[in-house]
Design goal:
Number of domains: 3
Order of helices and strands: HEEEEEEEEHHEEEEEEEEEEEEEEEH
Oligomer: single chain
Number of strands: 23
Largest sheet: 7 strands, antiparallel
CATH architecture of the largest domain: Beta Barrel
Distance between the termini: 102 Å
């Protein structure tokens, strides 16, 4: 009987323990739910590219424009005299220079005295000329006597014809020897061993290979004494790499910039593209012809600019609207409420107070015209 009571009490004890455990767990859950959520801290950083100024109307705005830019290819070269306008100065009489009256770089006129050469060739030519004149005088006298004798029947017709032939040959010898003197540069009416050499054309002396007291040989074994070039029109010869040759086309216009005058641009016409490349540099010679305004000198270094056919449209702004800061380019765009936003852009070339913008803004936008003044205001 006693054992039965104990077994009946066990289920009651287990139930009480389970009820107590559930009450404890529920209390813990309610406490966790009642606790406040953790505080989340959100840090807000101001935009460093946005600035606010008082009286924003003080800063004038400009509208971004647009311009079509053609791809450019640059090549270096030099100014060269036009070969068709260059004239050599030679002396057909060999001898010794006894006077020089013009020098390298001088401007000369056609017919101007350049140098004098004392030549034995002239002496020999005059000797031959005088002998030919004496022979002509003798044959002429013999012809007159032969005519008289033939009229009297003293000589035959053949003898008369022989005298006529000798006279004709003597006249030809006189004419040829006189022409030889004139070819050597002397005057048949003035016997003088000194030959005067005159400028065959007007221009500038761009080459000189003779000095006073030097020897002058015949043209076949001596370079030109002088070279005179008309520099009113010149050539520009430049080296273009083979990868850039597609941008160079015959008959097109190329811009020329002189290293000595970088602010001036000249326009020339492409007249020749070399058919053979330099095997070491992989370049071709390109010839550009242009008028010389008077400041181009032979040998000057230049930069030639060739333009492609298809252009690209870029934004263009006043150069003062671009702020160069930390090796970057920036412009200021109105953001409303007296604020301006600093936008980074990619700047292109600057020309005549304007600058091309390759990226960062689009045509039609409003920007601050004086970026430096606004930036200085924001730093105060």
């Amino acid at each position: 009987m006693k054992r039965t009571r104990v077994l009946l009490a066990m289920p009651l004890l287990v139930g009480a323990l389970l009820t107590s455990s559930c009450s404890t767990t529920k209390a813990k859950v309610d406490e966790a739910a009642a606790a406040p959520p953790p505080v989340q801290v959100v840090e807000q950083h101001p935009d460093q590219n946005v600035i606010k100024v008082d009286q924003p109307e003080r800063f004038k705005l400009a509208t971004v424009g647009e311009r079509e830019e053609k791809p450019e290819t640059h090549a270096t070269g030099s100014v060269t005299p036009d070969v068709e306008r260059s004239v050599p100065v030679v002396s057909l009489a060999s001898g010794r220079v006894v006077g020089i009256y013009a020098k390298l770089g001088d401007d000369v006129k056609k017919g101007q005295l350049l140098l004098k050469v004392q030549s034995n060739d002239i002496v020999n030519a005059f000797q031959t000329y005088e002998q030919a004149k004496a022979d002509e005088k003798l044959t002429n006298t013999q012809l007159d006597r032969a005519k008289l004798l033939y009229d009297k029947g003293a000589i035959s017709l053949n003898d008369l014809q022989v005298a006529q032939d000798a006279d004709e040959k003597a006249k030809v010898a006189v004419k040829a020897s006189g022409q030889q003197i004139r070819t050597l540069g002397a005057d048949v009416n003035r016997e003088d061993p000194v030959v005067t050499v005159y400028a065959p054309a007007s221009g500038t002396i761009v080459e000189q290979n003779v000095v006073n007291a030097s020897s002058v040989h015949t043209p076949d074994n001596q370079p030109n004494l002088f070279t005179i070039a008309d520099l009113s029109r010149v050539w520009v010869l430049c080296d273009v790499y083979e990868n850039d040759l597609p941008a160079v086309r015959l008959g097109e216009t190329a811009d020329i910039k002189l290293n000595a005058y970088p602010d001036q641009t000249f326009h020339g016409k492409i007249t020749n593209i070399g058919k053979v490349l330099d095997p070491n540099l992989r370049t071709a010679k390109v010839r550009i012809e242009l008028a010389n305004p008077g400041i181009m000198r032979a040998g000057m270094f230049v930069t030639a600019i060739f333009y492609g056919l298809k252009g690209t449209t870029h934004a263009i702004v006043p150069s003062s609207a671009v702020l160069h800061l930390h090796d970057r380019d920036w412009v200021f765009v109105p953001a409303g409420n007296g604020q301006f936003k600093r936008n980074e852009v990619t700047g292109g070339k600057i020309e005549n107070g304007t600058q091309i913008i390759l990226s960062g803004i689009t045509p039609g936008q409003q920007i601050v015209e004086d970026a430096l003044a606004l930036n200085s205001e924001s730093e105060q």
